[in-house]
Design goal:
The protein is mainly α and 53 residues long. The chain has one domain. It has two helices and no strands.
Length: 53
Amino acid sequence: MTFSSQLAARRMSSSFFAKDGMLKELTKNLFERALQAEIDEHLGYSKYGRAET
């Protein structure tokens, strides 16, 4: 589901700032991507990639 379609669906069903609203989901996704990038940088390769030799 794309961001724009999620936003449109959330407008009709719940508030952006609600306890389980879209802001919480976006923040979670942001932190997961940032932490994954940090791990990839630390290890030198991605989870499904191969290390450069």
